[in-house]
Protein backbone atom coordinates (compact mmCIF):
# COMPACT_ATOMS: atom_id res chain seq x y z
CA UNK A 1 0.00 0.00 0.00
CA UNK A 2 1.29 3.48 -0.75
CA UNK A 3 1.22 6.18 1.95
CA UNK A 4 -1.20 8.26 -0.08
CA UNK A 5 -3.86 5.56 -0.17
CA UNK A 6 -6.85 6.41 1.97
CA UNK A 7 -9.93 4.38 2.76
CA UNK A 8 -13.06 6.30 3.70
CA UNK A 9 -16.47 4.79 4.21
CA UNK A 10 -19.87 5.67 5.57
CA UNK A 11 -20.47 6.22 9.28
CA UNK A 12 -21.16 3.01 11.17
CA UNK A 13 -23.15 3.02 14.38
CA UNK A 14 -20.74 0.69 16.18
CA UNK A 15 -17.61 2.46 14.97
CA UNK A 16 -18.68 6.03 15.72
CA UNK A 17 -18.26 7.52 19.19
CA UNK A 18 -16.58 10.36 21.02
CA UNK A 19 -12.84 9.97 21.46
CA UNK A 20 -10.55 7.10 20.60
CA UNK A 21 -11.33 3.87 22.47
CA UNK A 22 -10.34 0.22 22.35
CA UNK A 23 -12.64 -2.68 23.07
CA UNK A 24 -11.17 -6.08 23.88
CA UNK A 25 -13.00 -9.07 22.38
CA UNK A 26 -10.13 -11.49 23.10
CA UNK A 27 -7.07 -10.99 25.34
CA UNK A 28 -5.31 -14.39 25.51
CA UNK A 29 -2.22 -15.63 23.74
CA UNK A 30 -1.50 -19.02 22.17
CA UNK A 31 -4.78 -20.90 22.67
CA UNK A 32 -8.33 -20.18 23.90
CA UNK A 33 -8.86 -21.08 27.54
CA UNK A 34 -12.55 -20.46 28.39
CA UNK A 35 -13.92 -21.78 31.67
CA UNK A 36 -14.84 -20.80 35.20
CA UNK A 37 -11.22 -20.04 36.16
CA UNK A 38 -10.80 -17.43 33.38
CA UNK A 39 -14.23 -15.79 33.31
CA UNK A 40 -13.01 -12.49 34.80
CA UNK A 41 -10.20 -11.70 32.33
CA UNK A 42 -11.57 -13.82 29.48
CA UNK A 43 -10.48 -16.90 27.55
CA UNK A 44 -10.68 -15.86 23.89
CA UNK A 45 -7.57 -15.19 21.80
CA UNK A 46 -6.46 -11.79 20.47
CA UNK A 47 -9.04 -9.44 19.00
CA UNK A 48 -9.32 -5.67 19.59
CA UNK A 49 -11.83 -3.23 18.12
CA UNK A 50 -10.73 0.37 17.52
CA UNK A 51 -13.61 2.74 18.20
CA UNK A 52 -13.48 6.41 17.35
CA UNK A 53 -13.32 6.84 13.60
CA UNK A 54 -16.13 6.42 11.09
CA UNK A 55 -15.09 2.88 10.22
CA UNK A 56 -15.25 -0.57 11.74
CA UNK A 57 -11.61 -1.39 12.47
CA UNK A 58 -10.50 -4.65 14.04
CA UNK A 59 -7.00 -5.67 15.13
CA UNK A 60 -6.38 -9.42 14.84
CA UNK A 61 -8.87 -12.24 14.35
CA UNK A 62 -8.40 -14.56 17.32
CA UNK A 63 -11.47 -16.34 18.67
CA UNK A 64 -12.75 -13.10 20.23
CA UNK A 65 -13.79 -11.92 16.75
CA UNK A 66 -16.70 -14.41 16.74
CA UNK A 67 -18.67 -12.42 19.32
CA UNK A 68 -17.78 -9.12 17.62
CA UNK A 69 -19.25 -10.50 14.37
CA UNK A 70 -22.57 -11.19 16.09
CA UNK A 71 -22.60 -7.65 17.50
CA UNK A 72 -21.88 -6.09 14.10
CA UNK A 73 -24.67 -8.04 12.39
CA UNK A 74 -27.26 -6.49 14.72
CA UNK A 75 -27.04 -3.35 12.58
CA UNK A 76 -28.87 -5.22 9.80
CA UNK A 77 -27.18 -3.27 7.00
CA UNK A 78 -24.18 -3.85 4.71
CA UNK A 79 -20.90 -3.67 6.61
CA UNK A 80 -17.47 -2.41 5.57
CA UNK A 81 -14.91 -3.86 7.97
CA UNK A 82 -11.16 -3.29 8.08
CA UNK A 83 -9.32 -6.21 9.66
CA UNK A 84 -5.65 -5.54 10.44
CA UNK A 85 -3.60 -8.65 11.23
CA UNK A 86 -0.29 -8.39 13.08
CA UNK A 87 0.67 -11.85 11.75
CA UNK A 88 -0.91 -15.17 10.85
CA UNK A 89 -0.10 -17.35 13.84
CA UNK A 90 -3.16 -19.31 14.74
CA UNK A 91 -4.16 -17.40 17.88
CA UNK A 92 -4.47 -14.27 15.70
CA UNK A 93 -6.54 -15.76 12.84
CA UNK A 94 -8.44 -18.77 14.15
CA UNK A 95 -11.65 -16.77 14.75
CA UNK A 96 -11.90 -15.71 11.11
CA UNK A 97 -13.96 -18.71 9.87
CA UNK A 98 -16.45 -17.96 12.68
CA UNK A 99 -16.72 -14.23 11.91
CA UNK A 100 -20.35 -14.14 10.71
CA UNK A 101 -20.14 -11.00 8.50
CA UNK A 102 -18.09 -13.00 5.94
CA UNK A 103 -21.18 -15.12 5.16
CA UNK A 104 -23.52 -12.26 4.15
CA UNK A 105 -23.65 -10.79 0.64
CA UNK A 106 -23.20 -7.01 0.52
CA UNK A 107 -20.57 -6.97 3.25
CA UNK A 108 -16.99 -5.96 2.40
CA UNK A 109 -14.04 -7.13 4.49
CA UNK A 110 -10.64 -5.52 3.88
CA UNK A 111 -7.85 -7.65 5.35
CA UNK A 112 -4.37 -6.14 5.87
CA UNK A 113 -1.21 -7.71 7.25
CA UNK A 114 2.34 -8.85 6.50
CA UNK A 115 3.20 -11.72 4.19
CA UNK A 116 3.58 -14.97 6.14
CA UNK A 117 7.05 -16.27 5.14
CA UNK A 118 6.42 -18.87 2.40
CA UNK A 119 2.74 -17.97 1.96
CA UNK A 120 0.86 -14.88 0.87
CA UNK A 121 -1.34 -13.22 3.48
CA UNK A 122 -4.42 -14.54 1.68
CA UNK A 123 -3.15 -18.14 1.49
CA UNK A 124 -2.07 -18.14 5.15
CA UNK A 125 -5.50 -16.96 6.29
CA UNK A 126 -7.54 -19.11 3.90
CA UNK A 127 -5.65 -22.37 4.39
CA UNK A 128 -7.82 -22.91 7.48
CA UNK A 129 -10.91 -22.71 5.23
CA UNK A 130 -10.39 -25.93 3.30
CA UNK A 131 -12.65 -28.97 3.57
CA UNK A 132 -9.97 -30.85 5.51
CA UNK A 133 -10.31 -28.35 8.35
CA UNK A 134 -13.66 -26.56 7.94
CA UNK A 135 -16.98 -27.17 6.13
CA UNK A 136 -16.86 -23.89 4.15
CA UNK A 137 -14.10 -23.00 1.69
CA UNK A 138 -12.67 -19.51 1.33
CA UNK A 139 -13.92 -19.25 -2.27
CA UNK A 140 -17.49 -19.82 -1.07
CA UNK A 141 -17.71 -16.72 1.13
CA UNK A 142 -20.69 -14.46 0.33
CA UNK A 143 -19.01 -11.22 1.42
CA UNK A 144 -16.30 -9.59 -0.67
CA UNK A 145 -12.97 -10.22 1.06
CA UNK A 146 -9.96 -8.26 -0.21
CA UNK A 147 -6.35 -8.61 0.89
CA UNK A 148 -3.60 -6.01 1.14
CA UNK A 149 -0.09 -7.01 2.18
CA UNK A 150 1.68 -4.46 4.34
CA UNK A 151 5.29 -3.51 4.97
CA UNK A 152 6.63 -0.84 7.32
CA UNK A 153 4.52 2.10 6.13
CA UNK A 154 1.99 4.81 6.97
CA UNK A 155 -1.58 4.86 5.66
CA UNK A 156 -5.03 6.10 6.59
CA UNK A 157 -8.30 4.32 7.18
CA UNK A 158 -11.05 6.91 7.47
CA UNK A 159 -10.08 9.39 10.15
CA UNK A 160 -7.28 7.29 11.64
CA UNK A 161 -3.64 7.22 10.60
CA UNK A 162 -1.67 3.99 10.98
CA UNK A 163 2.08 3.42 11.06
CA UNK A 164 3.41 -0.14 11.08
CA UNK A 165 6.69 -1.42 12.53
CA UNK A 166 8.34 -4.87 12.49
CA UNK A 167 8.58 -6.56 15.88
CA UNK A 168 10.75 -9.49 17.08
CA UNK A 169 8.96 -12.87 16.65
CA UNK A 170 9.63 -16.21 14.88
CA UNK A 171 7.68 -14.89 11.86
CA UNK A 172 7.24 -11.31 10.78
CA UNK A 173 4.91 -9.32 13.02
CA UNK A 174 3.79 -5.79 12.26
CA UNK A 175 2.79 -3.58 15.17
CA UNK A 176 0.12 -0.96 14.50
CA UNK A 177 0.39 2.62 15.71
CA UNK A 178 -2.95 4.42 15.35
CA UNK A 179 -3.85 8.06 15.84
CA UNK A 180 -6.85 10.33 15.36
CA UNK A 181 -4.65 13.43 15.59
CA UNK A 182 -5.45 13.91 19.28
CA UNK A 183 -4.70 10.53 20.87
CA UNK A 184 -2.38 7.74 19.79
CA UNK A 185 -1.96 4.09 20.66
CA UNK A 186 0.14 1.11 19.66
CA UNK A 187 -0.75 -2.56 19.51
CA UNK A 188 2.49 -4.56 19.36
CA UNK A 189 1.10 -7.95 18.36
CA UNK A 190 3.46 -10.71 19.50
CA UNK A 191 6.86 -9.37 20.45
CA UNK A 192 9.99 -10.36 22.35
CA UNK A 193 12.85 -8.03 23.22
CA UNK A 194 16.01 -8.60 21.21
CA UNK A 195 18.71 -10.37 23.21
CA UNK A 196 22.11 -11.92 22.67
CA UNK A 197 21.53 -15.58 21.82
CA UNK A 198 25.20 -16.50 22.30
CA UNK A 199 25.38 -14.81 25.68
CA UNK A 200 22.38 -16.84 26.81
CA UNK A 201 24.00 -20.09 25.70
CA UNK A 202 27.21 -19.59 27.65
CA UNK A 203 25.41 -18.15 30.65
CA UNK A 204 27.90 -15.29 30.95
CA UNK A 205 28.47 -12.03 29.06
CA UNK A 206 30.66 -12.39 26.00
CA UNK A 207 32.86 -9.31 26.19
CA UNK A 208 34.49 -10.10 22.83
CA UNK A 209 31.53 -9.03 20.73
CA UNK A 210 31.01 -5.35 21.21
CA UNK A 211 29.55 -5.04 17.71
CA UNK A 212 26.90 -7.71 18.39
CA UNK A 213 25.78 -6.03 21.58
CA UNK A 214 25.61 -2.66 19.82
CA UNK A 215 23.38 -4.17 17.12
CA UNK A 216 21.01 -5.68 19.71
CA UNK A 217 20.85 -2.35 21.52
CA UNK A 218 20.02 -0.60 18.22
CA UNK A 219 17.16 -3.06 17.56
CA UNK A 220 15.68 -2.52 21.03
CA UNK A 221 16.15 1.27 20.75
CA UNK A 222 14.18 1.18 17.50
CA UNK A 223 11.20 -0.30 19.37
CA UNK A 224 11.63 2.30 22.13
CA UNK A 225 11.60 5.13 19.57
CA UNK A 226 8.45 3.73 17.94
CA UNK A 227 6.43 3.60 21.18
CA UNK A 228 7.79 6.89 22.61
CA UNK A 229 5.13 9.21 23.92
CA UNK A 230 2.01 7.28 22.88
CA UNK A 231 -1.08 7.56 25.05
CA UNK A 232 -1.67 3.80 25.21
CA UNK A 233 0.68 0.87 24.58
CA UNK A 234 -1.13 -2.47 24.22
CA UNK A 235 1.69 -4.97 24.53
CA UNK A 236 2.32 -8.70 24.47
CA UNK A 237 3.07 -9.38 28.18
CA UNK A 238 2.57 -13.12 28.17
CA UNK A 239 5.02 -14.19 30.86
CA UNK A 240 5.93 -13.25 34.39
CA UNK A 241 9.62 -12.38 34.70
CA UNK A 242 10.32 -15.80 36.30
CA UNK A 243 8.50 -17.70 33.52
CA UNK A 244 10.30 -15.76 30.80
CA UNK A 245 13.71 -17.18 31.73
CA UNK A 246 12.64 -20.64 30.48
CA UNK A 247 10.75 -19.24 27.46
CA UNK A 248 13.46 -17.18 25.78
CA UNK A 249 13.21 -17.34 22.01
CA UNK A 250 9.49 -18.22 22.05
CA UNK A 251 8.65 -14.75 20.73
CA UNK A 252 6.91 -13.14 23.71
CA UNK A 253 7.69 -10.53 26.35
CA UNK A 254 7.87 -10.59 30.11
CA UNK A 255 5.76 -8.17 32.10
CA UNK A 256 8.90 -6.58 33.56
CA UNK A 257 10.26 -5.80 30.09
CA UNK A 258 6.98 -4.22 28.96
CA UNK A 259 6.78 -2.00 32.07
CA UNK A 260 10.40 -0.92 31.61
CA UNK A 261 9.82 -0.17 27.92
CA UNK A 262 6.72 1.91 28.69
CA UNK A 263 8.30 3.83 31.57
CA UNK A 264 11.50 4.63 29.67
CA UNK A 265 9.57 5.75 26.58
CA UNK A 266 7.15 8.18 28.28
CA UNK A 267 4.12 6.03 27.46
CA UNK A 268 1.09 7.29 29.41
CA UNK A 269 -0.88 4.05 29.80
CA UNK A 270 0.38 0.53 29.30
CA UNK A 271 -2.15 -2.25 28.76
CA UNK A 272 -0.85 -5.76 29.47
CA UNK A 273 -2.24 -8.10 26.80
CA UNK A 274 -1.86 -11.56 25.18
CA UNK A 275 -2.13 -13.22 28.58
CA UNK A 276 -0.63 -16.65 29.16
CA UNK A 277 -3.50 -19.20 28.92
CA UNK A 278 -2.33 -21.08 32.04
CA UNK A 279 -2.85 -17.98 34.21
CA UNK A 280 -6.27 -18.24 35.91
CA UNK A 281 -8.14 -15.17 37.22
CA UNK A 282 -6.66 -15.51 40.69
CA UNK A 283 -3.14 -15.34 39.30
CA UNK A 284 -4.12 -12.52 36.93
CA UNK A 285 -5.36 -10.51 39.95
CA UNK A 286 -1.98 -10.98 41.62
CA UNK A 287 -0.15 -10.10 38.39
CA UNK A 288 -2.20 -6.91 38.09
CA UNK A 289 -1.42 -5.86 41.65
CA UNK A 290 2.31 -6.53 41.27
CA UNK A 291 2.47 -4.83 37.84
CA UNK A 292 0.78 -1.66 39.15
CA UNK A 293 3.22 -1.49 42.09
CA UNK A 294 6.22 -2.17 39.80
CA UNK A 295 5.00 0.46 37.31
CA UNK A 296 4.69 3.04 40.09
CA UNK A 297 8.28 2.40 41.15
CA UNK A 298 9.48 2.93 37.58
CA UNK A 299 7.45 6.07 36.83
CA UNK A 300 4.82 8.04 38.74
CA UNK A 301 3.28 9.14 35.43
CA UNK A 302 2.73 5.64 34.02
CA UNK A 303 -0.71 4.04 34.38
CA UNK A 304 -0.62 0.22 34.31
CA UNK A 305 -3.68 -1.79 33.26
CA UNK A 306 -4.46 -5.41 32.45
CA UNK A 307 -6.74 -6.01 29.45
CA UNK A 308 -10.03 -7.77 30.17
CA UNK A 309 -12.30 -9.31 27.57
CA UNK A 310 -15.51 -7.35 26.98
CA UNK A 311 -14.17 -4.09 28.42
CA UNK A 312 -13.81 -0.77 26.59
CA UNK A 313 -11.06 1.70 27.52
CA UNK A 314 -10.26 5.28 26.52
CA UNK A 315 -6.92 5.46 24.66
ZN1 LIG B 1 0.04 -14.73 19.68
ZN1 LIG C 1 2.73 -15.30 17.15
Class by SSE composition: alpha/beta
Average residue-wise pLDDT: 92
Termini distance? 26 Å
**What series of H and E elements makes up the topology?**
EEEEHEEHEEEEEHHEHHEHEE
User: What is the spatial order of strands in the main beta sheet?
Assistant: 1-8-9-10-11-12-13-14
Q: Report strand %.
A: 15-25%
Per DSSP E runs of 2 or more residues, the count of β-strands stands at: 15
- The amount of helix comes to 10-25%
Number of helices: 7
Small molecules (ligands, ions, cofactors) in the structure: zinc ion
Helix and strand arrangement:
Blueprint (H helix, E strand, L loop, with lengths): L5 E2 L13 E6 L20 E5 L4 E4 L5 H9 L6 E5 L23 E6 L7 H6 L17 E6 L4 E4 L2 E7 L7 E6 L4 E4 L9 H6 L7 H18 L4 E5 L4 H4 L10 H10 L4 E5 L7 H18 L4 E4 L5 E3 L1
Parallel strand pairs: 1-8, 4-5, 5-6, 6-7, 11-12, 12-13, 13-14
Antiparallel strand pairs: 2-3, 2-15, 3-4, 8-9, 9-10, 10-11
The site of one zinc ion has 5 residues, from loops.
Give a concise summary.
The chain has 315 residues and is α/β, with parallel strands linked by helices.
Question: Keywords, please?
Answer:
single chain; 315 residues; alpha/beta; 8-stranded mixed beta sheet; 7-stranded mixed beta sheet; 23% helix; globular; binds zinc ion
What does this structure look like?
- This protein is α/β, with parallel strands linked by helices.
- 23% of the residues lie in helices and 23% in strands.
- The chain is built from 7 helices and 15 strands.
- It has helices at 65-73, 121-126, 197-202, 210-227, 241-244, 255-264, 281-298, and strands at residues 6-7, 21-26, 47-51, 56-59, 80-84, 108-113, 144-149, 154-157, 160-166, 174-179, 184-187, 232-236, 269-273, 303-306, 312-314.
- An 8-stranded mixed beta sheet has the order 1-8-9-10-11-12-13-14.
- Residues 2-16 have low confidence and may be disordered.
- Bound molecules: zinc ion (ZN) (2 copies).
- The site of one zinc ion (ZN) has 5 residues, from loops.
